[in-house]
Amino acid sequence: MIVLGLDAAGAGCGVALRRDGRVVAARTEPMAQGHAVRLMPLVLEVLAEAGVAPGDIDLFGVTSGPGSFTGLRVGLAAVGGLALGAGRRIVGIPSFDAVLADLGPVAAGTVLVALDGRRTEPFARLFDAAGAPLGEPLCLPAADLAALIPPGPLTVAGDGAHLLLPVLAGRADVRQAGPAAIDPATVARLAEERADQAREGPPPPLYVRPPDAVPLAERAPKP
Hints:
Layout lengths: L1 E6 L4 E8 L2 E9 L4 H16 L8 E5 L5 H18 L2 E5 L1 H7 L8 E6 L7 E6 L9 E2 L2 H7 L5 E4 L3 H4 L9 E3 L7 H10 L30
Parallel strand pairs: 1-4, 4-5, 6-9, 9-10
Antiparallel strand pairs: 1-2, 2-3, 6-7, 7-8
Helix pairs in contact: 1-2
């Protein structure tokens, strides 16, 4: 199976291609803006390196948020066009899941995945040591999030960890782990593992909080 994974929801653009369970080409570029300019060129670079045409791809994976509103929309639109042209389906991977998948084994306690929402309030979700979610995704001030964390060992992961660690300084059982950035190869792997969840067209975006800007087509008509 050939799977293309894309991520533009975070602080960068990433594209990776898996063939028969192995990553054969990948590109990642950190950036705060410019996702719309760089994502498709990265896709073309990865396909050229792997010697794969868009029509050869069997399945697409994409981060479905939360994250940057603009980057998230760019990624979903790009994968929607690619999948439509190839006649293939798409698996949406929540950004929390992509971070959690690269964390590695956690012996005990709670895992807090924190994503930088480009404000003082991170996007966050709590998981148990086995990776099962403990409640819904949240977007709250760091101090309010800290008050919701159960006692015991705590592992903090994600590119928003720096927003939480200062308010957790009083706890002796906190560790930071895992890569900060989402790996598009992980997005591709999770998409392959969740192929039974594939759908036609882009997955719905997970915003957690209302976006700062709303596309004209989605705005409610004025009374």
